Every structure is written in C-alpha cells, then in structure tokens.
Amino acid sequence: MARLAPFICALALLAGCGGGDDKEEAQQTIRDFVEAINTRDADTYCDHLITEEFREKSSFATGDEARNSCKRQLRAIEGLRLELVRVGRTKGDGDAATVNVVLRRSGQEITQRVKLEKDGGDWKISGGAG
After folding, report:
1. Full-prediction pTM beyond 0.85?
2. Span 48-71, pLDDT tens digits
3. Domain boundaries, the chain
C-alpha cells in the first residue's frame, strides 16, 4: 500500500503541455495524466507530468533516485484504473493554475482540486487537495 501513496496522491494532481491556451493545455494535461496512469507510462508521468519538487516529495528521494523511484512505483501498481468523469473549473494566475476534476476509481467518484505550475513552458502537477 505504501508504494501506491504517490499515485493515490496523484489522483489529486494533474499536469499539462506547453503552447497557446493555458486553460486548454491544463485540461489536456489532466487527460494525459489519466492516460499515463492507466497505461503505466512511467516515463511520461515521472518525466513530463509532475514537477521535480512533487516527484521528490512523493518518492522521499532526490534527483535521479526520485525519478527512478517514481517509475518503479508506477510500474508496480496493479489494478488501478481511472476514468475522467469531468474537468471542471480551471483557474490560472500566471505560472500557477488549479483545475477541479472528477475522477472515477473502482466505481467511486472522487472530486479533486489539482495544482499546476508552468515548468519550462509546460503545465505540470505540483500538488492538490480533495
């Protein structure tokens, strides 16, 4: 169960890609997050969808060890499947944004407020709350 913690926390978090419309990019990141979790795409999730700070906090490691730990943990998860029910209010303020999302896991809907930060022009998960 302990190794599921970063990904259960990640249910509260999501991130995005860079470019033009911040709101649409943040929302696309939510979809990318769900896809990465469902396909166990550890490279996308750990390298592109979360901030370094979040990766280090959720893996209790730093640098390359945090990245490697993140990937090992995601690949080891069995049975976790998310469904994106809806993307709600998306609010941006410069390089920070919050997105309200509803996810379904094991038949149960979970409402989350996801915190995002711009990192190198891309939206990335930086935290969240239920």
Report:
1. no
2. 999 999 999 999 999 999 999 999
3. 2-129
